Amino acid sequence: MDLKPYIRVIPDFPQPGISFKDITTLLNDGEKYKEAINAIKEMVSELEIDVIAGPEARGFVVGAPLAYALGVGFVPIRKSGKLPYETIEVGYDLEYGKDKLAMHKDAIKPGQNVLIADDLLATGGTIATSVNLVRELGGNVVGTAFLIELSELNGRAKLPDINVFSLAKYDY
Ligand SMILES: O=P(O)(O)OC[C@H]1O[C@H](OP(=O)(O)OP(=O)(O)O)[C@H](O)[C@@H]1O
Ligand SMILES: Nc1ncnc2[nH]cnc12
Fold this sequence. Notes:
alpha/beta; globular; binds 1-O-pyrophosphono-5-O-phosphono-alpha-D-ribofuranose; 4 helices
């Protein structure tokens, strides 16, 4: 599908120089949201997936419906301090800031095939950190899937040995 007509681009948000890709306009359109999730489902149809993991917050609105559509479980990767049980945590840099991501220690069973889903691949910091967390728990990362990829930020370079699927590409 052609996703771009449903993405709103906001210049200089949240800071000067960032061209923000706003997916709320897609989420607000039930038919197109469903079409986008089904298109990702189609892109990853060759993979054997036991569970989907997605980083807070926008990874939830892609990962959870994808998990539902595939009939597999969903594991939230959350920002530090949000998960109630024992966690592992890793720090990372963003296109506009720094943060820490966490997972429950028992969220992935060793050897499970995990697809990591998010709305957008920019510098790759979030997804590379997510990959590290899943691997630390013994998961086998079979791929990563996004609505949007910002090609010039070269997030793929942080995922050298991993399948990367995206529905729409922008330069930055
Ligand atoms: O490839 P990167 O440079 O890491 O950037 C991409 C990440 O940035 C955004 O999340 P953000 O941390 O802004 O959090 P949010 O989903 O809670 O808005 C986006 O949803 C991705 O997770
Ligand atoms: N340019 C961008 N637009 C939307 N979300 C982002 N996350 C990181 N960079 C982003």
